UniProtKB/TrEMBL annotation:
UniProt protein name: Amidohydrolase
Keywords tagged on the record: Hydrolase
Family: Belongs to the TolB family.
Family annotation (Gene3D superfamilies): Amidohydrolase, TolB, C-terminal domain, Urease, subunit C, domain 1
Pfam families, A to Z: Amidohydro_1, PD40
Example GO molecular function: hydrolase activity, acting on carbon-nitrogen (but not peptide) bonds
């Protein structure tokens, strides 16, 4: 049955509405378990009733009311409401923003909890409400006009008037006392006002190095706002700092004459006559204690990691990547084509099916190679200075489109290479129109500058006219991932296929890719990695199976006949070391032999004779947050060598392109790829808007079931729910999953049964965090919730790069110089050289706050696990920078090492992270005493994983000698390569990981 776009939207919306209505939580019906008493709040905002008797504030994503003198707070909204930023209106009415249905909308509720009413609807966000003094209007901001503009809602009629628009990125509007003007912040850089008839005035411009937040009208209608830079947050009135030396949270203050109500340092405060006093509160919230999970190691099975399958034009052959090699499936027989220590990926057939083009890093960086399928001979194809990835032959076989390391799309042929797009943020694989005149690919298009999320759309490039055009696959819908989920043009040029909401669709198009009809659903099961089989069928992956479906939905399974098994570990070896730290003891054990049998530690015994080794054995380190394939094609096989060279024997990825992840996990386990143990998940489960290329926009319970089915059948080690997933679907994921879950949120995650939270407080749909303030600090609410729930905290200390001002030894280390791709190393050197200068974006003040936060959780018994978010921070070296930052700001070296050994092993439910009889022999051999000097943990001389010993020289050898290539000439870029959109940028250009 075919569904029109209108029918699809209607049915999906109805289903979501019913699911939400059926799952509403009742306030006060949480478990009988004792709640956590909160007496401080992190990044809370406050509003005051007109009569001065009541305060409303937001705490752990709920709205609470409190007598103005303080006391016990009463909760008004439930967990599913996900409510913040209250604003008192007349008659005890409180307006607030809610993320209940997957977009931000405005609601009102009575001070007694009655009369809950939704005021705005639709697929755009409506945020930050503020009642007018007479209560007849609500000012707010919305992206409904193409950027965040100030709007006014008439409460009685529901009519909305737009006051500002493109190119504004307005925030947090507040009214003047006479109700004639609205003050707001634009781009965190200016304070403006607008009248109800649209007249603008600029009142404040931020001084260099500062940002502005939370504007309001103060005494005499002077602008009041918070002015911030790292280490300083001042509440201003005009040009005068009224409150200094406090962690002012940056929300609109409430002025009453010359005194001001605001939030700072975890408290609600009044400031008057030069001093501040707190308004005390208590609020109890329920939590669920994390239950331990038992991890698993895969040892053998059928190959499920089939990455990037493509079909020859005649349908007789299929090529794909598996077990660190390229394979060819033809006539029911699977043949290995490449076999080596390098990264060969993303094959594509020439139109006549006689050749295969693919990317390989055998010359040091990913370059294009062409293989003759008859003779097996191979040769470089039009090499370039940077990386060449995800190639596609043109229909006539004379050109190839590819993507470089910066997200720029190029076309190369015998005459040279030509750039055809600007830098794009993690674009998909190119596809060609039948006549070769248009190249299309998946690219993200955000809704606004202020919040980076958008939809993954079809970006087409007219090679004749040099024009770029974005096309939604369906209204307000995303292509599933910007990897192998489309768009893919049919050979005859009459259809484009893509995955939306976890299933395949095909839409009729004209020669330029313009839709000429409605998308038609092709599959009803989990669908990934589309490729055309002729003009009337699709080949795709379904939970590790290669399948084929005709456009009318008839499916068959294509047998691959590949299996893998873990290789046998070395039978026995004895390693003598001068000292050993087992991961538990407070001191080193001196002069011992470590006996290893069949990949496990057999015993640790005193060495008979004098110490002849200068090495110290410590448990192999665990980096518990990285994304192997965020730039996996650009890093290639060198990434695994790099992790090992710095003593990191286990990594955990909380988000990766699923088949790239499964392929790498199987290759590492099978020993066909060198590297650490790899525990991971596929694409994070996201909501209606996405940013990264490997997020799954998930819009309903039915689709969530498909996502969880993929996770189960591909044996995910964990699941991550991402930034825009509503609480109701996050809760459903917890209820239906059998593996650990993590997200960017602490609450209500701590009451849903989530197992962990990533980062100290990174990207958040609010645009700020309720876990850490803009000054890098956290308060009693956050620490207590982590400790009482048992949820893990993975700090990912990006700001640790501020320490390069003191020590650049990791930057200049030979392992870094050899194993980083050249462009990554150049950026790393620049970043390190900028440390401690005005050009640096990293702050020791923020870093100190982050570490202080993590230390408080750790010393109260919470679970802190070391992770880095590599490659947004750097693989391997960032792990050591995190450890050094911890020690600099309060952790002992032993405590820091525990966060990278025993603690993440506990989270994974695995017997790693220690050196003891029966444990896997994952050991880093270093020079020095890391219990006294944490820098010694990076002085790795050799490393063992599962009993296999690797020498550093062997890990460096494949990349020690750079291959000098004669590169193809760069031709004049097409006009389409000109950057005309602000969102066209590489993912390393801005520190988007940790800016929100």
């Amino acid at each position: 049955m075919d569904l029109s776009r209108r029918e699809l939207l209607t049915r999906t919306g109805q289903a979501a509405a019913l699911a939400t209505a059926a799952s509403t939580l009742t306030i006060g019906t949480a478990r009988a378990e004792p709640g956590v008493k909160l007496t401080q709040g992190t990044n809370i905002s406050v509003s005051r009733s007109a009569d001065g008797k009541w305060l409303a504030f937001d705490l752990v994503t709920a709205i609470w009311v409190l007598p103005s003198a303080g006391g016990t707070a009463r909760k008004l909204t439930d967990e599913l409401q996900d409510a913040t930023l209250p604003s008192f209106g007349p008659g005890g009415q409180i307006a607030f923003q809610s993320y209940r249905d997957g977009n931000y909308h405005l609601y009102v509720i009575g001070r007694d909890g009655s009369g809950l009413k939704q005021l705005t609807h639709g697929k755009y966000d409506h945020r930050e409400p503020a009642f007018s003094p007479d209560g007849t209007k609500i000012a707010f901001v919305s992206d409904r006009a193409g950027s965040y503009g100030v709007h006014v809602l008439d409460v009685a009629s529901g009519a909305i008037t737009q006051l500002t628009g493109v190119p504004d990125e307005a925030a947090a509007p507040q009214w003047s006392r006479d109700g004639k003007r609205i003050i707001f912040v634009t781009g965190n850089a200016t304070v403006d006002t607008v009248t109800l008839d649209g007249k603008r005035e600029r009142l404040v411009t931020a001084p260099a190095g500062y940002q502005l937040f939370g504007a309001a009208f103060g005494p005499g209608d002077q602008p009041s706002y918070t002015q911030m830079r790292p280490g300083q947050a001042d509440l201003m009135l005009g040009t005068t700092a009224v409150v200094t030396g406090q962690d002012v949270f940056g929300f609109a203050p409430v002025w009453d004459g010359d005194r001001v109500l605001y939030t700072a340092d975890g408290h609600i405060r009044w400031h008057a006559n030069g001093s501040s006093r707190d308004v005390p509160f208590e609020a109890s919230v329920p939590v669920k204690t994390v239950k331990p999970h038992r991890g698993k190691n895969l040892v053998a099975g059928p190959v499920k990691g089939i990455a990037g399958p493509v079909v020859s034009r005649d349908g007789s052959k299929i090529a794909f990547r598996a077990l660190n090699s390229l394979y060819l499936l033809s006539n029911g027989k699977t043949t290995k084509l490449t076999d080596g220590e390098y990264f060969d990926s993303d094959p594509d057939f020439s139109p006549d099916g006689t050749r295969l083009i693919y990317a390989s890093d055998r010359t040091g960086v990913a370059q294009l190679w062409v293989r003759d399928l008859a003779t097996g001979s191979e040769q470089l194809y039009a090499p370039a200075p940077g990386a060449q990835t995800t190639p596609r032959f043109s229909p006539d076989g004379t050109k190839v489109a590819y993507v470089d390391q910066d997200g720029q799309v190029w076309i190369v042929d015998a005459t040279g290479r030509r750039q055809i797009t600007p830098t794009l943020f993690q674009p998909g694989r190119p596809t060609w129109s039948a006549d070769g005149s248009v190249v299309a690919l998946a690219a993200v298009k955000p809704f606004s500058r202020r919040f980076r999320e958008g939809t993954s759309q079809i970006l087409s490039v007219d090679l004749a006219g040099g024009e770029l055009k974005y096309t939604e696959p369906m209204p307000f819908r995303s292509i599933a991932t910007r990897g192998d989920d489309g768009p893919v043009w049919s050979p005859d040029g009459k259809h484009i296929a893509f995955v939306v909401e976890s299933v395949a669709w095909a839409v009729p198009v004209d020669a330029k890719g313009n839709f000429t009809g409605e998308p038609r659903q092709v599959t009803r099961e989990v669908t990934d990695s589309l490729a055309w089989h002729g003009d009337d069928a699709l080949v795709y992956l379904n939970n590790g199976r290669l399948k084929k479906s005709t456009l009318d939905g008839r499916t068959t399974t294509i047998r691959v006949h590949l299996n893998w098994a873990k290789p046998k570990a070395p039978e026995r070896q004895v390693v003598h070391v001068g000292a050993c730290w087992d991961g538990e003891a407070r001191n080193l054990r001196r002069n011992v032999d470590i006996v290893v049998e069949n990949g496990k530690v057999k015993e640790i015994r005193p060495h008979q004779g004098p110490a002849t080794s200068t090495l110290t054995a410590i448990p192999g380190l665990i980096d518990a947050h990285n994304h192997w394939h965020l730039r996996g094609r650009q890093w290639g096989a060198r990434q695994g060598n790099l992790w090992l060279s710095y003593g990191i024997t286990t990594v955990r990825s909380p988000g990766d392109p699923v088949y790239q992840m499964v392929e790498t996990r199987e290759a590492l386990a099978a020993g066909t790829l060198t590297g650490p143990r790899f525990y991971a998940t596929g694409e994070a489960i996201d909501g209606s808007r996405v940013y990264y290329n490997f997020m799954r926009p998930t819009l309903s319970r039915a689709q969530l079931d498909l996502e969880l089915r993929r996770a189960h059948e591909l044996a995910y080690d964990m699941i991550k729910t991402y930034v825009r997933l509503p609480v109701e679907l996050q809760r459903a994921a917890v209820q239906r999953s059998k593996v650990p879950l993590s997200s960017h949120y602490l609450y209500p995650a701590a009451n849903l049964g989530m197992d962990g939270m990533e980062h100290v407080g990174a990207t958040n749909r609010l645009g700020y965090s309720h876990t850490v303030t803009r000054q890098g600090k956290a308060y009693q609410d956050v620490v207590e919730l982590f400790v009482r729930s048992g949820m893990s905290m993975t700090p990912t200390l990006f700001q640790s790069r501020a320490l390069f001002a003191e020590d650049k030894s990791l930057v200049t280390d030979e392992r870094t110089r050899v194993l980083f791709p050249p462009w990554e190393y150049d950026r790393y050197v620049t970043d390190a050289n900028n440390a401690g200068t005005p050009a640096s974006t990293w702050s020791p003040d923020i870093l100190r706050g982050w570490v202080t936060f993590a230390l408080a959780v750790h010393r109260k018994g919470g679970l802190v696990i070391c992770g880095t978010d590599a490659p947004l921070d750097t693989p391997a070296t960032a792990t050591h920078m995190n450890l050094r930052a911890m020690v600099k700001y309060g952790f002992t070296p032993r405590e820091a090492l525990i966060t990278a050994t025993r603690n993440p092993a506990r989270w994974l439910g695995l017997p790693i992270g220690t050196i003891r009889p029966g444990a896997p022999a994952d050991i880093s051999f270093v020079e020095g005493d890391p219990l006294q000097d944490i820098k010694a943990a990076a002085n790795v001389k050799q490393v063992m994983v599962g009993g296999r010993l690797h020498q550093i020289a062997d890990l460096l050898k494949p990349y020690r000698q750079a291959h000098a290539l004669s590169t193809t000439d760069a031709l004049e870029p097409l006009p389409s390569a000109e950057n005309k959109h602000w969102w066209h940028e590489p993912e390393w250009a801005e520190h988007v990981c940790c800016a929100h």
